[in-house]
Amino acid sequence: MTITLTPDRVIADIADILEIGPAELSDDSNLLDFGMDSIRLISLVERWRALDARADIAALATVYLLSDWLAVIAGGSSESAPAPAQTRAR
Question: Which InterPro entries match (predicted)?
Answer without folding.
Answer: ACP-like_sf (IPR036736), PP-bd_ACP (IPR009081)
